[in-house]
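User: I'll paste a sequence; please echo it back and then give the predicted structure.

Assistant: Echoing your sequence first, then the prediction.
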Amino acid sequence: MTSDPPYRRILLKLSGEALQGDLPYGIDPSMLNYIAGQLKKVMETGTEVAIVVGGGNIFRGSTAEAAGMDRATGDYAGMLATIINALALQDALERSDIDVRTQSAITVTAVAEPYIRRRAMRHLEKGRVVVFAAGTGNPYMTTDTAAALRAIEIGADVLIKATKVDGVYSADPMKDPKAERYGQLSFDQVLTDRLSVMDATAIVMCRDNHLPLIVFNLNNSGDLVRIIAGEMLGTSVVN
């Protein structure tokens, strides 16, 4: 008899850069296929999976603002970029025989359902992956904040953030070879030390709603399944 996985329902936060792979811009089809393969293994454990995807591989509102664009306009353009990524991810998942629905926080009914919390939860209960696009639907809000919000709304057991390094470090490990990796942190420590985990709004939302956060390296094949199985990988952030 197999035991139940420790996480009944997860929310996975994927940055736009995660879909970019090694390309300088856009979406790498091989990376989409890799992510779909990892998620298929997770689905086989019986864990329910929701995803929030970013759009930085295509357009970033804060960068556009620095170049002179109105920030709200730039953020809305960034939301549209997340919809492009969500549709590409949806296609890769479907080609891996995973039933998936995309829900958008801004209305684009020709390509995605509107975000409706109860409908999203029903999809999850039926074994479908739900991809949340367009952030929160509001400018000045990051997709990190959207990930924390959606995870809380759907009753996820954990928020898992995929990155290019194996956890949270005291400094950028790509630049500082002496950077220390943390195995576990508190949300207050992340805020006090201003560690680069997620934006402060997302961290506070997780803390105040007792939602644990795990940061792991997406490029380590099998790590996501191992986390779902209860292994301590990456960095855990808890109250």
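The domain at 9-238 is CATH 3.40.1160.10 (Carbamate kinase). The longest strand covers residues 9-14.
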